[in-house]
């Protein structure tokens, strides 16, 4: 078994680098944002584990499938080809789909944090500074640099988003740790479907709207007491 393990990782650390990218300890500030979930809990929209799972399923089926997954894939390709014009186009489109000031500010803040992280990890940055505009671009750049394939990159990104949202729900509702991990386990088919469908979308099919999330994020911007950033 030891020999098999050594052979598995010898000269190919792509799996380890993907685990690095999706780690909750990654210092890009994901833990500081609830993406409207805090307001949804405060308003009584989400009261228990079933409510949280339904909320996350809807967001994965629409926003993540229709926007994040296909744009991550295109940004990764643009970074591989050092095509800054294409990367700018996809960053612009992503920010257009972030429906509130809070969501756009999160992209910018986490994008800046991702740049600092990538510099510390010796990942070459593009000269234009485009990666700072959104954290999805930084994730794509790292995936391209470390040669993480498109399916693995999309799956890892989705898992990271989902884990952060579940951890937020555990804290806010609150839920037990076991309940949270049960939600993660039950979401496997939704994650797989989002990756498969999102990677197959044509350019003209990219897009999604989640009015409930937009309302929750807008409400969170002025929420009086809160744990998460706006």
TrEMBL record:
It comes from the Bacteria. InterPro entries: UreF, UreF_sf. It is found in: Cytoplasm. GO terms for molecular function: nickel cation binding. Keywords: Chaperone, Cytoplasm, Nickel insertion. The keyword Protein transport does not apply. Its main location: cytoplasm. GO terms for cellular component: cytoplasm. The keyword Cytoplasm applies. Belongs to the UreF family. Required for maturation of urease via the functional incorporation of the urease nickel metallocenter. UreD, UreF and UreG form a complex that acts as a GTP-hydrolysis-dependent molecular chaperone, activating the urease apoprotein by helping to assemble the nickel containing metallocenter of UreC. The UreE protein probably delivers the nickel. This is Urease accessory protein UreF.
